Amino acid sequence: MGLIQREIERRGIPTIGISIVRSLTEKVKPPRSIHLYWPYGHPLGEPFVVAQQAAVLGKAFEALYQITAPGTIVDVMYKWRKEQYPRSPWLKRPVDNCRLSSQDMETINICNCHQAANPNGL
Predict the structure, then answer these.
(1) Among 43, 102, 106, 121, which is most buried by a count of CB atoms within 10 Å?
(2) What is the DSSP letter of 92?
(3) Can you give the residue ranges of every domain in the chain?
């Protein structure tokens, strides 16, 4: 991602990376990044845990505006599955430390079925 980030930034668009492998992020040297000590494959958190995912995105957006030195990596110290995540002010509806409702899951399944049936968006 760091290579892509640098190319996008060269065109004047700021970027932020979300990393779970700090040593690799240090080698690739993206323009700016946050790092979480979480399991592989879960950079935004557990599937369907909206509060957790929103908190990670909130930290990424904060870092996007606060990092001034190129190559900075901010360690986000959230604990995997043991954290009370702060409410993100940019979410339209409040979420607690809970999973999506069955109605939300039904909506996601309908969207996924539509995408599978119409891969070209037709």
Answers:
(1) 43
(2) S
(3) 2-117
